[in-house]
Prior knowledge:
The chain is α+β, with helices and mostly antiparallel strands. 50% of the residues lie in helices and 13% in strands. The protein has 2 domains: 3-205, Beta-Lactamase, CATH 3.30.450.40; 210-273, Winged helix-like DNA-binding domain superfamily/Winged helix DNA-binding domain (Arc Repressor Mutant, subunit A). Helix 1 (3-13) crosses helix 9, helix 5 runs antiparallel to helix 8 and helix 11 (217-227) crosses helix 13. The protein is built from 14 helices and 5 strands.
Amino acid sequence: xxxxxxxxxxxxxxxxxxxxxxxxxxxxxxxxxxxxxxxxxxxxxxxxxxxxxxxxxxxxxxxxxxxxxxxxxxxxxxxxxxxxxxxxxxxxxxxxxxxxxxxxxxxxxxxxxxxxxxxxxxxxxxxxxxxxxxxxxxxxxxxxxxxxxxxxxxxxxxxxxxxxxxxxxxxxxxxxxxxxxxxxxxxxxxxxxxxxxxxxxxxxxxxxxxxxxxxxxxxxxxxxxxxxxxxxxxxxxxxxxxxxxxxxxxxxxxxxxxxxxxxxxxxxxxxxxxxxxxxx
Length: 280
């Protein structure tokens, strides 16, 4: 279900207590340092488990490029490639790798569930089984086949579209008899809609934005430290450089991003990617 469809009733459906939990997650994650993404993602899973009951979960940073030949070669759809994939604790079983690979290469391009997701690219969206399949069972689509291989009984997807080339896909699974209901969808949609600043910082930490593609790996690292507020002396220590070399990296970042100071860099960041958090 699209952002407009969910937002029309999400506020009335989510309880005040749940809104308080959601607001706490927003506040906890919004200003986390992006130079240590693994630590931040670990905390994300801890926070989101206070809002939603699930058994396994995954997070995909998806990148779109019509020029990326990996998309067609690896079987991905409409130019979308999973740039980074993260699993919640105890969510990934290596025994499922073969089934995931078969699904990706042979079943995914024609799957109803996947097609529904791709068709809404560029929109914030959250959906559960009945939003896509109606009264049809999971077995009616290839995603249902994959879930059976993974001993999963129900799934929910929530997507935050950062821009036309970067999206964050959250997947939540349940193994027990309780399926995801509309209240779960509305809760997760409300939660995800307020995580824009967090997702933007995370995407930047992996160099997914178009303006970062002109930077070298060391320049991208410098950019992250600048956005986290480190001084040039601290950046030099963190990157094992002389302060003079660190300064040269800072200058190169400024030049590449067409800014003249740290203040202009932060203003550009807030202007281009400082996504507002909605009021609960």
